[in-house]
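Table S2 (text version). Query chain:
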Amino acid sequence: MSTNRLADVEVVALEAMIDSVGLSMVLAEIAAICEGKAEHVTANWQEQGLGRLWDECADRVDTAANCRAARRLRSFEGRPAPRTAGL
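Corresponding structure-token output:
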């Protein structure tokens, strides 16, 4: 069955990753994955339009990774975070 939500176990894993390395780092890696997908579809499928969409997603996620709020969160990294997923 297809849904628009992550499974509970995936949410817990994502939250653990954010708690471990920080939101900015997770978002930066997602941006890098998007860039890789843009290069792949452009080079291997010759899908320039789809590549541009992946590049746009990469740019927007990278912007979020470096936004003021994400930078402020970095000052809290290393502190135990309250658990919210799976409660």
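Notes on Table S2: The chain has a mean pLDDT of 89. Residues 4 and 11 are 13 Å apart (CA to CA).
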